Amino acid sequence: MEKVDVKGVKLFAPASIANISCGFDVLGLCLENIGDLMEIRRSEKAGIHITSIKGQDLPLEAEKNVAGVAGLAMLEAYNPQLGFEIRIEKNIKPGSGIGSSAASAAGTVAGINYLLGNPFTNKELIPFAMEGERLACGSAHADNVAPALLGGFTLVRDTNPLDICALPTPLELVATVIHPKIEVKTADARAVLKKRVTLEKAISQWGNVGALVSSLYEEDYDLLSRSLVDGIVEPARSILIPYFKELKAACKEGGALGSGISGSGPSVFALSRGMSTANKVAQAMQSVLEETNIPFDIHVSPVKKTGVSFIEDLLT
Hints:
Elements: E1 8-18, E2 27-43, E3 47-54, H1 66-78, E4 83-89, H2 100-115, H3 122-137, H4 145-150, E5 153-159, E6 162-167, E7 173-180, H5 186-191, H6 199-218, H7 221-227, H8 234-237, H9 244-254, E8 258-261, E9 268-273, H10 275-290, E10 296-302, E11 309-314
Parallel strand pairs: 3-4
Antiparallel strand pairs: 1-2, 1-11, 2-4, 2-5, 5-6, 7-9, 7-10, 8-9
């Protein structure tokens, strides 16, 4: 059978929720039906060339765009003489707190890897995608790019050297995310955090992280609910998100297992057991912001078991 010469690939780069309350900078999960569409094509011209971005006003220069920086980091490691063109349809708003920059970075390196015949594993792609995160917020963190590439829940045990653990996903778990359309810059959200915490709070947080990981393996939804508590980051960052307390109260009233700030905000997430409850939580959250003049988006999504997914080979 004659081998088809693939010129490019169309792919879906998923959104993600980082931190998951107690796991600041170490826990993340991948969302199934929220994400960007991207096309990666081979180019005769060396380097990364972003030819179009739909949906958001972002720079086309590779060195100023997270997708470009991630792709350049990968080519530097593999073969700097190669070239690729990138087209992006941004459906995840930058600064929304659900991994917009991570999706672009992860989609780029996964697409290039696919066209090269997969010389890197998905885990090996994470450091390249992290360089995009470094451009976006000044910190090469992995809590969004890891789930965007690996799918499901992920745990960043360490970043030096990088050590990522894939975690199981309870079958009935569904996320609800509301995005108030205000801007919270990641750098600002990091600036409000305290540099030191008490031993008492640290012990409590360690206990919640350990219990949350255990709950995923055991599919123990009650334990998961008790673990979704953040006594360190959420109290500081919640002041940046209007009506945060009301949104959390609405999530509880709607039957959610727990809720918190998605990434650095302003999005607020809730985890529920079953789609029916997740939809009720969405209605409860929506009712809070409908009483204000703040526009918002709302999403209900299962956890995506795989990361970046490939839609179509491009032959021309």
